[in-house]
Amino acid sequence: MSRWGRHKRQEEADAANAPAQAEAEDAQVSAWRSGRPKEKELTIDSRLTLRSGLRMPRFGLGTWQAQGGDCYQAVLEALKVGYRLIDTAQMYGNEAEVGRALQELQIPREEVFIVTKLTGREHGRVAAGHALRESLEKLKLPYVDLFLIHSPRGGLLIETWEAMLHLRDAGLTKAVGVSNFGPQHLRALQALGKELPEVNQIELHCGWHQKETVACCQELGIAVMAYSPLARGKLFGGPLRQVAWSGTEAGLCIRWALQKGYVVIPKSVTPERIRSNATVFQTSLDAVQMEQLESLDRGLCTCPAARAMDLPWAEVADRKPKGKGKGNSQPQARLPTRGETWVDALR
């Protein structure tokens, strides 16, 4: 058979399979929004589909407080084990180490999902663009997959969110989202007619289920990304031991969050724990175990940054605290001309 004939038959086969594939994708999105994904489908390679169609890994490595060689080695180990999402931030001061590990392993760029976050010191139209470019230089990447506003605490949220959308349209990030945003912040953006974030990264674990925020995100089609899924170990050695589970307490927490439909990013710099956390896909939790974990919700906030979720919208919408960050002190970029975006004007 000719090459053209083989290609033609492949096209016909692809066309025949398209409805089934689309149905499977729709089922996956529905499962994520309902918080009840099919457990048997969960693997280290599982991904959810964001509103834009971008496929985001369900499981990754958090790097908060990981510095220098520890961060570099942790990212190397995670990628070797099969992690395909790495979460970093400008505030963490470790983007260069993440970039060095990516360069060493030379995994195809499209196979790895990189998340970084805009520090509150860089809120504002001009500062946000400069900050993302600096992050890309440190990461040694042409783009990141997801760029988040780290916290509403930096203020100027309307202007900063518009800048985030421009940066995405310019190709410097594939998707944009937020972190530590409460329902009032998300609904305020909706009321303004703004395009909504694709992801909201919040503290979320067995001890703090964040039901109101999760419900809001699911209603608006915003994926929930859980940081500190282990509650910094504050649940270990106590109520978690009442749940029959063959793995570690950390694994129990991670598995619960995965089965709830969240993107989960446990942090560790210990090779053994990085490998152990990746074994949670070998065993699922049954309905009884999930119900036991549901009963542990007591509003346990372990990260001070999460308190920004309670900030009133009026305090952060179009104001920036005096003397906070380089956004007000940097030279202003020229105004964009017709047909240009703010990103073009920053070049």
TrEMBL record:
The keyword Oxidoreductase applies. Transmembrane segments: none annotated. Residues 1-36, 317-347 are annotated as: Disordered. Gene3D superfamilies: NADP-dependent oxidoreductase domain. It comes from the Eukaryota. Keywords: Oxidoreductase. PANTHER family: 2,5-DIKETO-D-GLUCONIC ACID REDUCTASE (PTHR43827), ALDO_KETO REDUCTASE FAMILY PROTEIN (PTHR43827:SF13). This is NADP-dependent oxidoreductase domain-containing protein.
